[in-house]
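Table S7 (text form). Paired inputs.
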Amino acid sequence: MNFQELNKQRKIALVCSALGIIACLLPWYSYGFGSVNGLNGWGVLVFILFICSGILSFAGDQKTNLPSKSWLLVLVSGLICFLIPGYYIVRILMATSSISGEDNGVFKSIYGNGFGLGIGIWIAAIAGAVIAAGVYRLRSKNDNIKDSFNTLKDSVERSVKTPSDGGRPSN
């Protein structure tokens, strides 16, 4: 693989997927005496989706845009990789600020003033957003979400065994 010949859409998805994987290994939360990385809770899903979007963006003819099935999967992976860390960012910021309308005395007595968001969660959210925006913005002219979804759906339906045909896969 020559990185210079790689399609721009694939290049963005591949680089941001690599950044997202690294971001999952970095601290997402830090508190007075330690930190938590992205390989906990829903962060595991984010990590797996960054891996999948990297593999999908690397597979196939690397000089062309992503095919419609892969394009949609990478787009959805990027959105999910943005939404999960984004949800955690909003949730933590609201819990540690006066916006929540709650008395933060208990929260501060447990974690102290040293509680905060780590660099990893910010990088993961930004990488997911850039994957989704880059893949959507640089899509082929004939790619749209509806047609890509129908193509993906038809592909899954053909590969699933149905009881009406005797359990044989359809062609």
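Next pair, protein 2 of 2.
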Amino acid sequence: MKLDYAGGEVLISDAMSHALLEYSASIARTGGSENLLIPVFTLDGVQGMAEIVVGPASQLIATPTEQPHVDLGDQSVVDDIIARTTLLRPARAIPVAGDDVDTAESELP
């Protein structure tokens, strides 16, 4: 995928693209921002790291490219970004079947 950011363009993996866009949207909802260091290819084919800021004002655009699959060996960074996104999501209640509910007597008077 080609990532357009702050007037520049880099190539990132599809997994990174999806994780980065989800994280950007999640952190924007909190009003916060964060610097991330991600592996990229420049459009000239040079591999390196890019530091980007994601937050409420981030304008990220990911578009498919004609380039072959981009493999940056970035799964650990993708996993970290997914974990950060999960931490920003609100907690959800999970229904429990009646037999699974703890019915022990309360110690409160």
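The chain is about 30% helix and 25% strand.
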